[in-house]
Amino acid sequence: MEALKQTSFPKVDGREQRSKESRSRILKAATSIFAEKGPEGARVDEIADAAGINKRMIYHYFGSKENLYVEVLRHNYNKIYTLSKNAIDFADDPRVNVARAIRAYFYYLAENEAHVRLTSWEALCGGRCAGKLFPKFFDLIELEFDDIIKDGIERGFIRPDIDIRQVILSVHALCLVYFTRQEVVQSLWHEDMFSEEMLEACLEHILKLVFDGIFS
Q1: What tens digit of pLDDT does each residue of 18-39 get?
Q2: Residue 174: what pLDDT?
Q3: What single DSSP character describes residue 216?
Q4: Which residues are bridge partners to 158 per DSSP?
Q5: pTM (2 d.p.)
Q6: Which of 105, 126, 160, 191 has the most CB within a 10 Å radius?
Q7: Is 26 in the same domain as 130?
Q8: How far apart (Å, rounded) are the C-alpha atoms in residues 47 and 173?
Q9: Range(s) of the domain holding residue 180
């Protein structure tokens, strides 16, 4: 199964690599600025300045600011899909695969504040743009986890009545809320929520909840 389809961009004779590099710089700059200011507050001019590129090239590659924002979301979702896919090895125990996939997602969020902020902006905006991408992304993740679940059921490790979509949604919520509500929750704890000890403690708690819920 392929990841979410990337928006194509025109090839320039003899300069395809430079075009790819320019597009990559734009996505990197746009991710940072959209994460900081949201889709409405971000301006094409500042994205172009941050990318070190003429803003006309942004319109050349993406057509509009909204298209660029959608492509930023797609780019970030594809990273998560790739991490989840690479975490799965069917030679391993289903419990190992589940733990490795959840760990990959949890630490991706811990190390990518921009993605967490983009998710929060999308929630504030009613999921206007993520709604174009998330169903397909969710289906891709479901296919990967569905194979793990079926493998676990066949081996007698996982309960046969599991609703895979509910499991994925629960994992997403458990992991994401730790980072989206970090400023609020931090006031309740004296420990640094981003310390290695606290991150591992939270992850182990999530894994226990998931394991208790799905494993026989």
Answers
A1: 888 899 999 999 999 999 999 9
A2: 93
A3: -
A4: 215
A5: 0.82
A6: 105
A7: no
A8: 30
A9: 70-214
The DSSP secondary-structure symbol of 215 reads B
The partner residues of 215 in beta bridges, in order of sequence, read 158
Distances (CA, A) of 45 to 50, 69, 176: 9, 14, 31
Domain total for the chain?
2
Task: Kindly state whether residues 184 and 81 are assigned to the same domain.
Answer: yes
In a domain, 11, yes or no: no
Q: How far is 44 from 26, CA to CA, in rounded Å?
A: 10
What are the pLDDT digits (tens) for 176-208?
A: 999 988 877 787 888 888 999 999 999 999 999
Amino acid at 55: K
* Spatial CB neighbours of 55, under 8 Å, sequence gap ≥ 6: 44, 45, 47, 48
Q: Could you read off the pLDDT of 148-182 as tens digits, one per residue?
A: 888 888 888 888 888 888 888 899 999 999 998 88
